[in-house]
Amino acid sequence: MSTGAGELDRPRTVVPPGERGATRIADRVVAKIAAQAAREAVGTLPPDADRPSASVAVHHEVAHVRIQLELGYPCDIGARCRTVRHQVVERVNTLAGMQVPEVVVQVERLHLDAALGAVQGRTQ
What is the mean pLDDT of the chain? Predict the structure, then answer.
């Protein structure tokens, strides 16, 4: 393995970090980050509840997120949704470096607390 004298004499050009290129994070990766953040925010789920899921549209480092989740009932639904929104914005911004101007939280199902349901009986 030999190097020519011309290669050793050439000065190396240092490209500033901001001009070296870009890292593109796939939408599905951002969706997984958002879903995990929603799981963290919701906390303990009822035993028969599905885990939160997310869909994401990313355009120019801005992510628009939709979270689908199930909650136990009774609970303060508005407060839980605010907590989820805040956690998703924080985690996506921290881990993916993206702005999140919009998080739509869609509550798919409410699960009645089993103990409360047994005490109250069935309601029509």
Answer: 88
Distance CA 95, CA 20 (A): 21
Residue 122 pairs in a beta bridge with: none
pLDDT in tens, 104-124: 999 999 999 876 555 555 555
Give this prediction's pTM. 0.76
Nearest-5° Cα angle at 75, 70 to 78 = 80
Q: Which residues contact 95 (CB under 8 A, 6 or more apart)?
A: 33
Q: What are the phi and psi torsion angles at 62 (to 5°)?
A: -120, 125
22-120 has which fold? Alpha-Beta Plaits (3.30.70)
Residue spans of the domains in the chain: they are 22-120
The sign of the dihedral angle between the CA atoms of 100, 105, 106, 111 is positive
| Tokens, residue 71 | 């909650």
